[in-house]
Amino acid sequence: MAFQSSTRIGHIIRNAVVFNIKNWHDDMIHSDSLLQAVQDLFSILEQRKIDYVLVGGVALLHYVEGRNTQDLDLLMALSALEKLPELRVSKKELNFVRADYNGLQIDILLTKNPLFKKVHSNYSKNQQFLDRSIPIVTVEGLLLLKLYALPSLYREGNFIRVSLYENDIATLLYYYQPDVTALLEELSPFIMENDLVEIKNILTDIQHRINRFK
User: Fold this and answer.
1) pLDDT tens digits for 11-29?
2) What does 72-139 look like in DSSP terms, one character per residue?
3) What is the model's pTM?
């Protein structure tokens, strides 16, 4: 099952920006430039043969309906990022970089993180998206990334993102029914035991929700 396979990524991001009331004080003409920024960025990635994987909300739209996003999420090595001087970095952490490209916010997960590297290597495939072939994370890869992030989001008390991530996980599990046991085995070497227990509890709750629809 694949949704939105021919959706233009730029329109997804532009519409999310335009319909977010927090952005209404900004110059709305700027939102139209996001379309060109997205097209230009993917052209650069292709021309320079940048090794990346599309993840996050836009990648999720390839598999399920209804998700909204205002940014672009990519998975790549720091050495690949260094080939993109056009990106203006605003935040840099050990495993994460936030950058701007002509008004387009880009969140980059760095493969310096062992789990991110595994997802980059083992959980991606080329798909037709934005009228071109783009490496997109698989359903299992999306689940690994979202499950990995949940414990820290709980510790931060980030209720909104926790709700979004849990809904994303529930939707992917409902439609695709992946092998959850195998995913947990893949995830376990990269997280603390307490976090693994918490993730298992979250998955149990989600499965109860899914069972109500059967």
Assistant:
1) 555 554 443 434 434 544 4
2) EEEEE-HHHHTT-TTSEEEEE-SSEEEEEETTEEEEEEETTSHHHHHHHHHSEEEEEETTEEEEEE-H
3) 0.86
